[in-house]
Amino acid sequence: MDRRDFVRLLAAVPLVPSLKAEAAPADGLPKLNVVTKYAPSATPGMPGPYPGRVIAVKSEKSVDVETSAANDEVVREMMARGMCALTGKKTALEAWRQFVVPADVVGIKVNCGGYPWCISAYEIVAEVVRQLGAAGVPPTQVYIYERFQNQLDECNYAARLPAGITVVAAETRNQRADNRGYDPATYVEADLFGEEDTRSNMMRLVSQKLTKIINVPNMKDHGATGATGCLKNIAYGSFSNVARTHYRGKSHTYSFVGTLASVEPLRSRTVLQIMDGLRGVWHGGPFARTRKYVFYPKQILFGTDPVAIDRLLLDIIDDERKRHGAISIYDRSPQYLKIDDGRARDADPNVNIIIREPGHVEFAAGLGLGVADKARIKVQDVVV
User: Fold this and answer.
1) Based on CB atoms within 10 Å of each CB, which residue in 61, 102, 343, 349 is the most buried?
2) In the Cβ-directed half-sphere of 325, how many Cα atoms lie within 13 Å?
3) Which pTM was predicted?
4) Domains with residue ranges and CATH for the chain
5) Over the stretch 265-295, which tens digit does the pLDDT of each residue have?
């Protein structure tokens, strides 16, 4: 059985409330047990009402590449144009009302790991909050969330947002010392490398409080997945104990990323994808402690299909790496692998410390999360 057959097999396994969905191991892939009591909504948020549809809003005026500062006025225009193009509505308010109602409790999943050079842009996050307010969702029903409090503290979104917004994390930092922020009854269980803790639990905020989630990832390279975008941001950013998926040169992210993203209620409640492509990271991601590997796509992608957006992202990252003479994210040659040599990887774009798994995007498509076939992805370019 090859990987395509395995994807079709796993896609056929129903996630029934209060039951375990067990994916039989094949082709070296681990067995993944999904445990959840939540049933999918009639129309799950992923892939949502616009499968295979991506709006790419671009503006040369959006970012000053010398200072890396974004233009708030231009970003607001890009946001309005993107939302209108996605929904076919004439105004941004009408567009946002397709996704939220005043009674909703809305989570905005940001990405803080690329601080200080490439995080979910303050201007984009602030505009999401502004439009939620215009649609009738009060600040007290809006949550900016990430897994780690220390990363949120560095980014300090609260200082740039209205009073009443809650900024919340599940853990103080990436030390797995405090699991109170996670739901013990909603998890994916897998023994990947013989680790002691074999469960990845969903955040309580996601499973027990939020009714809608807006995903705001970045365009970034990643050493285990090839690129980190919509799927990884919402999956690894909403579950505990996920770094265990890659170890000593091998990555299980191929099947794990999409499986996490498919778990209810995360799948049904994640209704909108807004990929921040104002800035990007072409190597050394998902972090950006140095500006050395930062580039400026100067665009924002809109959709409800995380797979379609991430399929485009793979090309964006790979093309940028090629421009710098770096090995492809698809390169699996043993000659480029230096196990557990993070410093060498950061210093040399032609070093892998893990065999990357960009195929995680296609796997997620097989789970029904979206469209990975580029011939079926419809991209509409909007220039501001």
Assistant:
1) 349
2) 1
3) 0.92
4) 3-383 (3.40.50.11440)
5) 999 999 999 999 999 999 999 999 899 999 9
User: Of 104, 78, 83, nearest to 93 (Cα)?
Assistant: 83
Q: Which residues pair with residue 371 across a beta bridge?
A: none
Instruction: Tell me the two tokens of residue 215.
Output: 């995903």
Instruction: Tell me the pLDDT tens digit for each residue of 222-261.
Output: 999 999 999 999 999 999 999 999 988 999 999 999 999 9
